[in-house]
Amino acid sequence: MSRGLTDPLIKICGLTRIDDARLAAERGADILGLVFSKRSRRRVSIDTARQVTSIGKGVAGVYTSMDEIGDEVRYLDYIQLHFRHSITDIQKVKEMSGLKTISVVASLDPDIPGSISSYRKAGTDYVLLEFVSGFRNHHDLASIIADRFEIGLSGRISVDDLPVVKKLKPTIIDASSSIEIEPGIKDHEKLALYLKEAKS
């Protein structure tokens, strides 16, 4: 059985406003996630990345293809590969940027253990298991995978889900849509409560 040995990193993703990013940092978020996918309503600019970097927390850039990775990497600490990628992709990103990588494995993947093993062997720093239809619908699967691998967890994780999530000892707990008013706009009350519970 392989479990995370330390407290999980708390990642607040899909940030588009500097005030939301500052609040997340003040309330204890470890990683601030910025989406650079051209298809996302949460997409941000290089200037936003520069501003968020000035807050002084780890910043992750989220991408849905290799072609999206650009000059903004100079403001990042992590590159999150939010698509099915290859060993070569991980190696290219590391060589190009020198940054840590987060490899996302979707719950719809027909071979979740195989994908996790492949990404870890390729040298990715973290694997994030995303439950596409929401973590709440997949407690059993999450438990099975967490018993075998050190993984992070994401997928509409709400405050109510956190007690179960934390028992699985994930490396990262990732939140986005569950603490939003609308895509990219965080609800400050939900955000503060989420971080309080996640860090307790």
Compact summary:
Helix content is 33%, strand content 22%. The chain is of the alpha/beta class.
Describe the structure.
With 200 residues, the chain is of the alpha/beta class. It has a single domain (9-199), classed as Aldolase class I (TIM Barrel, Alpha-Beta Barrel). It has seven helices and ten strands. The chain has helices at residues 18-26, 46-53, 87-97, 112-121, 139-148, 162-167, 188-199, and strands at 9-12, 31-35, 58-63, 78-81, 100-106, 126-130, 152-154, 172-175, 180-182, 185-186. The strands form two sheets. An eight-stranded parallel beta sheet has the order 7-6-5-4-3-2-1-8, with helices on one face. The chain has a two-stranded antiparallel sheet with strand order 9-10. The model has no long low-confidence stretch (mean pLDDT 95).
